[in-house]
Structure formats: C-alpha cells, structure tokens
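Hi there. Long-time user, first ticket. I'm pasting a complex I've been working with (about 894 residues overall). I'd like to know whether the download I got is complete or cut off, because the file seemed smaller than I expected. Thanks.
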Amino acid sequence: MTKNSIDLTLKIWRQENSRKTGVFETYRLKDISTDMSFLEMLDVLNEKLTREGRDPVAFDHDCREGICGTCGAVINGVAHGPEPETTLCQLHMRHFENGDTLVIEPFRSRAFPVKKDLIIDRSSLDRIIQAGGYVSVNTGGTPDGNATPIPSATAELAMDAAACIGCGACVASCPNGAAMLFTGAKISQLSLLPQGQPERKERAMAMVTAMDKEGFGNCINAKECEAVCPKGISIRNIARMNREFVKASFLG
Amino acid sequence: MELTANVPEGPLSEKWDNHRFSSKLVNPANRRKYKIIIVGTGLAGASASATLAEQGYEVSSFCIQDSPRRAHSIAAQGGINAAKNYQNDGDSIWRLFYDTIKGGDFRSREANVYRLAQVSNNIIDQCVAQGVPFAREYGGTLANRSFGGAQVSRTFYARGQTGQQLLLGAYSALSRQIKAGNVTMHTRQEMMELVLVDGVARGIVTRDIINGELTTHSADVVILATGGYGNAYFLSTNAMASNVTAAWRAHKQGAGFANPCFVQIHPTCIPVHGSYQSKLTLMSESLRNDGRVWVPKKPGDTRPPASIPEEERDYYLENKYPSFGNLVPRDVASRNAKEQCDAGKGVGTTHLAVYLDFSEAISRIGEAAILKKYGNLFQMYEKITDSNPLHEPMMIYPAVHYTMGGLWVDYNLMTTIPGLFAIGECNFSDHGANRLGASALMQGLADGYFIVGTSIANYLGSTKTQAVNTDHPQFAASKKQVQERIARLLQSSEDGPTGKLTVDEIHKELGLLLWDHCGMARNKEGLEKALAELPAIQEKFWKNVYIPGSGEELNQSLERAGRLADFLEFAEIMIRDALARKESCGCHLREESQTEENEAKRDDNNYSHVAVWEYQGKDKEPTLHHEKLTFENVTPSQRSYK
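Hi, the file is complete. Here it is re-exported in full:
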C-alpha cells in the first residue's frame, strides 16, 4: 500500500443466472488507487479474475458519469454506497479506508429479478412509465414554446422531480420495496407543468395501478429512498403523488 | 458506388418544402402494413420510433441497454440550439445555418444544414409540449444561453441535464407507443448483422445479451440510430457500450462510410489521471460562458493557481481570439490547449491540463448565481477530482467526444444500401468537419421527429417492396455468419488465459495508437506509422485475446470483444481517411497544412468534398469516392474567430 492506495476485501454476490441461487464470494485487492471510481475498482478486479481464468463479475454500467442510471449495487447495506447523492460510478475509492471489507450485492426487490451477479431486470420501471408517464402529444402541430408561460419556480420544481435517473436505488433501499419515489417523481413533474394537466387524473390512476401490479410495495415513510437517491429527489414527490391519486380516485 | 445526394431543386430556403411536396406518401391505412426496424433508442432512435409509430407504421425498436431511457444522448449536458430568436439578438434560420456550416469548416452539405436550422424551432415546441422542463425566465418564457461558435444566445437548456430531459421526453413518447402496441421494444439486444435480400436492407440479426440467443428480424426498412465511434480510442466521453458495430456491419455490406477521420475532441474534459481509467468525463462547454481559460505564462510553473499573480497568467483564448474569446469553437479551443501543454505550460501533476477559472464570474454575479447555472457540473467535478471549482480553478484537457463522420446518407438520410437509413450521430450529414456545441441534440431530434418520416414514406411510396420474412434463406445464412464469428472470437480462449491478453488491454493499445497519430494533430509520417502498426494489433487480438465463458450466456467480455474486433477493422479507414485528406479542416489538423498563425488551413480546390469509403473485402484496400460539395449560398471563407 502506498500513500494514495488502499487494500480491500470484497464480498461479492455471485449468481450465475436467474434460475440458480447465489452466494457471496470473497476477493482481495491490493494497491487500489484512491482516485479510482468504484466501477474502475471492479474493472481492476475483473481484469485480475480474467487473467486467472475465472469468471469476471457481471455488473451493469454505461455512461460512468452519473446520469444514465444503469449502474448500481448495494455496498455495505447502502444502495450506491456511503456518499450522499452519488451513483456507484461517481463514488470514488478515496471514501474508503485501507483494510475495509466491502459487501457488494445487487439491488434487491421482488420486482427486480437478478439476471447475473449484480445485474438485475428493472423493466418493471419502464412499464410504470408506459402506463402513463407521458403527455399524449404526437409529433408536429404543437404550439410555440413560449405560448404558455411557466413560472421559473414551477419549472425548477418540475426539473427537481424530472432529474430522476431511474436507477432503482429507491426501491432497493425501501424496507417495503416501494417504487413510490420513482413514480412520484414522474407524476409530480407532469402534474406541476401546464402540459400535464389534461391527463393529470388518468395518469395518477394508471401509474399507481401499474406500480402495484408490478409487485412494488407501499410507502411506509421510512425515507430510505430519499437518503440514497443519487439525484436528491425529495419524498415530497411521494406526498404529491398521493394527493394526485386521492384527488383522482375520490374527487373524480 | 453511386453517390447521388438527391438534394431537391429550388432556392435553399424552399428546398425542404419542395421536397416534402414532391415526396411520395403512404396512405394512413396502408402504413400498418409496413414494418420498420429501428436500432438504437437515443434521441434520434427514440424520436423516430415514436413518430413513425404515431404515423401508423409497425415499429420494432432495439437497444443494448436494459431500458430505452439509458442511451448515451442522456449524458449531453449543455443544451440544444434553435433559431427562435427569443432573445431578439439577431438570430434567424439563416444565421443558425451559417454558423453551423461555418463551424463545420465548410465540409457539409448546404441543403442538409439549412433544413436542420429550419426544423430546429419545431423541436423546441415539441419538447415543451411533452413536458420537458426547460429553464425559464422569471416571466415564464424560455431561457437561453450562449455556446461556442455563435455570437447569439440560442441554446435552450434544462440545467446541465439537457440531453437527459430531451431523451426522457422522446422516451416518454416512445413509451406511449409501446403501451399502445405500435412499437415492439427489444431491450438488451445487440445488432450483430444487417440482412440484405437482393441488395436491399430487409432485417437484422440480434444477440440477446442476457442469454446469448441469436434472433433474426425482418422489415421493409431498417433505420440505424446507433451513435458514434469515439470509443475506438478506448478513452472517450462516450458511454462504455457505445460502439461502431452496427454501422460497420452495414459498411461491410455496401454502405459507404463518410469522413471517418472527423472526430471531435472536446476541449473541456476532466484530465486523465491513471492507467486504470475507463472513460473521460466531459464538463459542458457552457462552462466557457463564465469560465476563463488560462495557463501560467512561464513554462514549468508549478505554483498553485492562487499563487500565480494576474500578470503572470496567459488567458490565451481571450488574447488570441478577442471577438469570441473563451467561446471559440471546440476544435480551436482543443488545439490551443494542446499547444499550451506542448509548450510546457500545462498544469496539474501530469502537465496535460489547463485552468478553467470561475473566480472573475463569481465576484461579478456571486456564488449562488454560478451554482444555479452550473451546480450539477461543479458537483460532478468535485466528486471526481476532490476539488471545488468555487475555490480553485477547474483543470481541463481535451478528450474524444463526438464523431462527425458516419454512414454516408443522401438528403433523405438513406445510405448507399436501399432501405437502410442512418440518423443522428451515426450518419455524417450535418456537422462537416466540426460540430458546434448544442447541435448534436438538435440533429438527433431533427432527424427522428421531423425528417426521417418524410424519407420513409417517400421510399415506401416509390419502391415496390417484395414480401420477405425471416424464412428467407438469407436470414439463416446471416445468422450462421454471426454464430461463426462468435465461435472465432472465442477460439483463442480454448486453452486458457496463460500468455493471453484481455480485451481491454488490446483496446487500450488501439486507443493509444489512434490518440497519438490520429488525434488532435495529424501528419503523414505518424499516420503511415499507425497504418503500419495496426495489423499487428489486429493479429494480436485474433490470436491472443482471452475471453472467459461462452457465447450462450451473459458474457460482458464477449460483448466487448465483438465491438473491439469491429473497431480494429474500422480504425483502418479512419487512418486512411486522415492520410488522404491532406488539408486541415475543422477538427482535422494536418500539421503540413497550417496558416502562419497555426490555424487549420483548408484547401478548397482539392478537398471540398465528402470522402466516402467503400469496403472491398477482407485484406483488400478500401476504395475512396468523393461527393463534391458545392456552395451556392455561402462563400467558404477561412474561418476566423479573432
């Protein structure tokens, strides 16, 4: 170990495919530069495993700049690891100590079946959006962008919700496996903006119904989702979704 | 190879209108009889999928990610251009057209670029209607900011996440069509081969990333929206999965590849810090609105930035280009950064970085105003580097970012293979030799929302397509080729890893070769050296690569190996193209062709053309064709941003 590098013990969930059961396997890594990102550390492990003729750890990742929402794993019990508002790809090894043991496992939820090692199937989130996470407008024939003024504060509030990257950390961290932060963020974005008004009620009903159908749980105010959200999405969006749903179901 | 651009008749401003009128149409009731395959779900692919499905075609969309929302368009930060002239600062369609064609150093087609500027305004309207939360002024109107290569404020933005918000808009439109049953979405599917029947594009072969299963799909039209090839360099700002495979497979079957040497090297990226590095992170060009670029005047000055007094700093962009200053186009900014570092004035531990300093803007408008504009970028920078740009200047260095080259397409965005279209970054069409900031989002959405629909109707309305499904023997034959190719990739791994190399080790070697000799500055000697060294890397790959596991399972090493195999072949035409274009233009600086002030010197007499490469078969030299560029409406001038 040098000044800017650390040695680590990794306990990683290995699962061949969705039919097999998984186990934790232990790996030791030496001289990990503290400037590396967490995924680069996994790259180093995988290069080592490959050279040893062993199966590298499968993990999802793509943009590696914290915006595509592809990567994610639970590190020592915390989705995306210990740093607030950080995706796994933006988590750097300087936040760990020499000699640390890191337990690395996939985002777990009934609605997120494990495909291999740390790779899960999050298509349930896509189906929630397909249920109504849009404005029903075809291409063409739309009014001028400035035709409807939107107060800057409203646009900013909508943007706060729209910043969701759909990674699923909220689901993985929720004791009840709820996807309400994810769903609430989309419902909030569109219910705040004038463009979302015509379908406001149908959207809330359809998306909440889809969420239940996919097997996600309900919010129990544990606030774990907000704590791990890499984009700092507030649970106020869940409250807003609940209001939208109540209005849609009882007030018609 | 026939290169008929099919540019419509008439004055520039009427060409698109004339074309839409003269194009054939498909009656709404007949559209559902046509099947369309769209590969890729970035801005171009998702917007095309949604739009064509809305129009009534039967659409199948494919992406390699686990969800169509994750394509790399999502990472675009700064904004999207449009000629709205909301700021009343002299903008117009003509000015956006002119800035774009000049920014591209007069190496793109007038008619395409003009059409892009024309539809730019529709894009903003469309996105607003979808609920894209663009930044607003206090009065509720849309806000704009400035970007490189323009003197007007025409860039619309959603904080530093404009690409994300536009992509989620297109993804939502696509999701609506999936729900309606008009689009069949295939996620985690990689296109492995294009299927031609009688010389016409009729389908694709895909590999299921989860279980390795190969499937054939037939259609009447195939649209590639598969992005750029920047990852040939290994290190780039592209997402890890971005690759050239779909375009290269099409090229090997007869699609001309245009201007492969035109690669944009973005000036404001976080510098390389170690050999384990997997990608480079871009810091939006919008930062140059408020950040001032400088280096110490004295070479080898290692003092911390705060200890270097004002008079010992060289704000080289402001000094050299007083009228555009820090907002010169990307190629100019990148080259100047390299020049300063080559002169020994680079900063940081590697001396391959320059400062981007916000202190002047912070004292002018305050920390809060700066954070409102760039908060998420500052946060991203701090996460990676552990340094806060509010307190010390950012360190930046150029990195491979975008590829202007791509599949050659005519005015209809059709490649040289009938029935095969290319949209977004994977075509070559609009950016010439250099793309201006905030123009990639514009082009992707222009192609997908507003242009390709006209082209598809015209193609289907004027072509008699025969009924073909996956029972046609060509599909089985193509699938077999893919199987054999995968088997060949795995062959060298049979006797274990001893003495072998990993996919990434070979990819890094290719990347370094390209970066050193076909990067920011190129010369004959270096390019010839790269061309001579390339076959050894290719051979090393096929003989010595070690890929664990099999083809019938989730195997990320195999995925990367397949993509690298194509990058290794593709690199040859990149280098050949750079060698053949002996002039400098835009991003392509041939050291032999510079002005006295070290600016790129074009040679319009000999190189005012699109260079289009035709594949001739394995171990045969590819042939170079030219599409001559004619300028009837603008006069190509030596670009000057002084």
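A couple of notes from our side: The mean pLDDT of chain A is 96. DSSP finds eight helices and seven strands in chain A.
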